[in-house]
Design goal:
The protein has 22 helices and 21 strands. By secondary structure, it is of the alpha/beta class. The longest helix is centred in the last third of the chain and has 20 residues. The chain binds pyridoxal-5'-phosphate. Pyridoxal-5'-phosphate binds next to helix 9 and helix 10.
């Protein structure tokens, strides 16, 4: 394989799956330098996991030499090991990793692996010059579970797409056990490795055939709990040392499929699904916020979000400054206040057809070292990819376009995996020892999976807004056609917006797909495939005319939802936005004359004919 050829340079910023997979499939013996006897330390986690997968692990730690860790004698140095090991796994800081890498090469190891957060490029080059393969800033436990078909758990994006049935009951072990080499170490003849496209991921990501039955459609795991193999297995699961299901409040295999699917579509590291979009917002903020902290949110948000942030979160002593995100000076001013922990906006704002300049918000978020959270509900990953523009966390109400058929509530929190939770002391829940897990530090142990792990292991466990498996199933079904549906949604919406724009009874149309919209240029940049299918227009005649129009429609359903196959219509001032003050209503784009439509997938001429009657 090309990457085993020492003359070909390995890209240490972006390892290919094949490179990592071939290493894990080949090695049998590991020396773990810096192995800790303390079970809540990451090295102890990794050692226990690797032992369970069939590797022989020798702990090396001069401080406790002669004692035992996890049943293995501890050695003071690599020189004392009873055999030459295949791989040296280094759990020390980057500075110490240099000399240990050199010692590992002298020892005769074929692979040197530096743990999450550990990197020493000079030592890596020296090792590679001697034909030794090097991996840096990765955890073998996480890579193994991702690449060797361990069932999706906690919604991590494995990036593996396969319609092959997996070995029953366990992750395929590296040594000759069934499935270990399925498409693994060598790309099959004539196949090039390419990244699967959006539509392929929408249908396949997260959803391999059921290992037990071969069922091709994802089963609905209608169960509240999962059996343990034995007491030790149970303890490992509770301690988060082993990935697996315990109790369905924390995770469920059906929901895990949806989580991985959404993570894949957004290009993120992992996803936590929740019972609704609003609970996603709550669970998303939990690891970021302490009492007295605040977020900065756009004034142009879904009405329910304004109420949740502005009123209900106050009961937790969480605060929110609402800012017009088109006004960067105002945003910078708000960001200068103490205890700001996140910036929050919608990519395509509900209901006004407003588009957020994600990149400039990211600049401000970076200046103060906090994550940028983007609600991508109305755009969906088909139309807008916030991570590509710097967002750190994405929120969805899957209730809307992701499920797409108006039949299942749900929410999702997607993590890009790129935010450095150690960069400042703002996020102790992720960067400090967690008392509820015996002093485990999430970011140290789980690296770029920390935020998503916290979402399940603390957010869902302690707050409890779990997505029902039936709703996960319905949303999985819906997500398979997301690309096709969104394509038709935006085609229909564009035609309807153009029709309304030319109608004498219509005062204005706020749709970023129209060339006259102040957001048209931003739409072209952030939503090049179309500006969504939810927008507002104003009827001449104010509040009464608005009510009349909504009540006259026959095909349009008058209700408070968006993102259905059916066309929907609403008068926000008398419904979704009625809790707000007049000023908030206008700022949110929901004044008296405003009508909001969510254009569905019916024949577009029928949609237009219905509006023709309503406006007449
Ligand atoms: C609907 C919606 C929410 C809330 O989601 P629920 O699933 O109704 O709890 C949040 N943000 C946006 C943009 C929405 O449209």
């Amino acid at each position: 394989m090309a990457e085993n050829d020492p003359t070909i340079e390995v890209d240490h910023d972006a390892y290919s799956d094949d490179y990592i997979k071939s290493i894990l499939a080949e090695i049998r013996t590991i020396a773990m330098v810096g192995a800790s006897p303390n079970w809540s330390r990451p090295s102890n986690f990794a050692m226990k996991y690797l032992q369970a997968k069939g590797y022989k692990v020798y702990p090396v730690n001069p401080g406790v030499a002669g004692t035992e860790i996890l049943g293995e004698r501890v050695y003071a140095s690599l020189d004392e090991l009873p055999e030459t090991v295949d791989m040296v796994d280094i759990f020390r800081n980057s500075e110490a990793a240099g000399p240990i890498t050199d010692a590992a090469v002298e020892h005769g190891a074929k692979v040197v692996w530096l743990q999450l957060g550990v990197r020493h490029d000079a030592a890596a080059s020296r090792a590679e010059a001697r034909g030794v393969r090097v991996v840096m800033d990765r955890c073998p436990k996480i890579e193994f579970s991702r690449l060797f078909g361990e069932l999706s758990w906690h919604g991590f994006n494995s990036k593996v797409i396969s319609s092959k049935r997996r070995a029953v009951g366990k992750a395929s072990a590296p040594s000759g056990i069934a499935g270990a080499n399925q498409g693994a170490t060598k790309p099959k003849a004539g196949r090039t490795t390419r990244s699967p496209g959006f539509e392929t991921r929408a249908i396949h990501a997260g959803a391999a055939p059921d290992p037990t039955t071969g069922a091709r459609s994802t089963p609905i795991f209608q169960t509240t709990a999962f059996v343990f193999d034995d007491v030790d297995h149970a303890a490992s699961l509770f301690n988060l040392q082993t990935f697996g299901n315990i109790y369905a409040r924390l995770s469920n295999p059906t929901t895990s499929v949806l989580e991985e699917r959404i993570a894949s579509l957004e290009g993120g590291r992992g996803t936590t699904c929740t019972a609704s979009g609003h609970s996603a917002q709550l669970v998303a903020l939990l690891p970021l916020m302490e009492p007295g902290d605040r977020i900065i949110a756009s004034t142009k948000l879904y009405g329910g979000s304004i109420t949740q942030f502005g009123k209900t979160f106050k009961k937790f002593d969480w605060h929110c400054n609402f800012v017009d995100m088109d006004d960067l000076d105002a945003l910078r001013q708000a960001a200068a206040e103490p205890r700001v922990k996140a910036i929050y906006a919608e990519s395509l704002a509900n209901p006004g057809g407003v588009i957020t300049d994600i990149e400039s918000l990211k600049e401000v978020a970076s200046e103060i070292g906090v994550p940028l959270i983007i609600d991508n509900t109305m755009a969906t990953p088909y139309l807008c990819q916030p991570f590509k523009h710097g967002a750190d966390i994405i929120i969805h109400s899957t209730t809307k376009f992701l499920s797409g058929h108006g039949n299942a509530m749900g929410g999702a929190i997607v993590d890009s995996g790129a935010f450095d939770w150690f960069q400042n002391d703002k996020f102790p829940a992720l960067s400090q020892p967690e008392p509820a897990y015996h002093g485990l530090t999430f970011f140290e142990t789980f690296g770029d999976l920390a935020y998503t792990t916290y979402g399940h292991a603390v957010g869902l466990r302690d707050l409890g807004p779990t997505m029902a498996p039936m709703n996960a199933y319905l949303t999985i079904m819906g997500s398979e056609t997301l690309g096709l549906r969104m394509q038709r949604h935006v085609e229909n919406a564009q035609q309807v917006a153009e029709y309304l724009d030319g109608h004498p009874a219509v005062a204005w149309v706020s749709y970023a797909g129209l060339p006259g919209s102040p957001y048209h240029a931003l739409a072209k940049k952030y939503l090049p495939k179309g500006a969504g299918s939810v927008f507002t227009f104003g009827v001449k005649g104010g509040f009464q005319a608005g009510v009349k129009c909504v009540e006259t429609c026959e095909l349009f359903s008058h209700l408070a939802n968006i993102g259905d196959t059916r066309s929907l219509i609403l008068h926000p001032a008398s419904t979704t936005h009625r809790q707000l003050t007049d000023k908030q209503r206008t700022a949110a784009g929901a004044g008296d004359d405003v009508i909001r439509v969510s254009i569905g997938l019916e024949t577009v001429e029928d949609i237009i004919a219905d509006l023709e009657i309503a406006l007449g």
